Amino acid sequence: MPPGIFRITFFWSNAARNILSIPLVIFVFSFQDCYLDRVNDLPLGLLSALLATNQPQAVSNLVQQDTGIAVPFVNQNDPAERQLHELMVADDAALDEVNSWVSTNHIARTNAPAIAELNRRINARFDVVKHGYEGFLRNHPDNARGFLAYGSFLNDIGDEDGSVIQYENSRQLDPKNPAVWNQLANYYGEHGGLTNAFADYTEAIRLDPAEPVYYQNFATTVYLYRKDAREFYGIAEQQVFDKALGLYRQAMKLEPDDLVLATDYAESYYGIKPLRTNDALAAWTNALNITKDDNEREGVRLHLARVKISAGFYDEAQAQLDAVTNPVYGDLKHRLERSLNDHKNPPTNSIPEISPTGVTNGVPSPTNPPPLAPKSVAVMTNVLPAVPKEFDLQIAPPPLREQKPQ
What we know:
mainly alpha; Serine Threonine Protein Phosphatase 5, Tetratricopeptide repeat; two-stranded antiparallel ribbon; 18 helices; 61% helix; 1% strand; disordered N terminus
């Protein structure tokens, strides 16, 4: 920094970060020869907002006024918000406890009484949380975050029709919260009303253009429902692919190290005919570059080999397969090796389908999801995994991501 320049940097405390749902705010002022460089109104206004009695609300209002972006805040000193936080903690604890019951049970499928008893315990455990939310909302009928949290819990336990009622209640109370628009779009994408899904994702992004989850979910929905997207936007199928891929790329700009996101994007090329070989290879190479361990790398190498076989790059495909040594991928590797041999020795000229069994979206998931059925619903899925046609490179679609209140 040149002589005479004085810089002040302010970071929010952890509590303030939680309140504002933004990681940090930096103010920079430059002084040189006793001259205050002109700075824009937003930093000056933010400095004034820090001196306000209600700092979170003042900052939220100012950011929205200057940028058009709504910055949600939570007053952690509010007894209602503390109670809601306790409810959400209890919500997670109940899901974890039931997950533990299910993952450790050894009940035979034919033991109907034992299964009925386990289901009774699960329902009773969830009813405690449901009653807690319902009591809270009776006492705080204007708490939009409470309705959103309750809707998320209902979605987690599989009551999606109940969840959308709570989402709508939340939206009516706070239409500037982008998270509720994302949740509604997820619901309509799964249960019909695709035009609502497209519109709601667009609104979520308008309210918070820096959230990668919204772009990813929007991309997934456009990709899966290409016919609806063609009709809604009045574009051809290849343009629909372009739109979905563009949304994925925007999400990746915001979350460049997210392997699940990168593989979702790369897998999208499997459904495009003719295969955009160079783009697909670039996408899988990017995924390879952000893997964090050998298990992830080898999963991506199988995809690279698969695309290279399809493109006729047989030596390069073999090199990728040679680098795969993890026994968990043994079956997939052998099938690709047979495919490679068939391609190199006609008349067979096809790639057999690879089942992603044991692999999340073709690549090991960074976190292993629990086996509990209700818990797995926490990540919303638009549709059941599509069964690929013979010789088709398409695999199961990625799940949509849910966003709960922070």
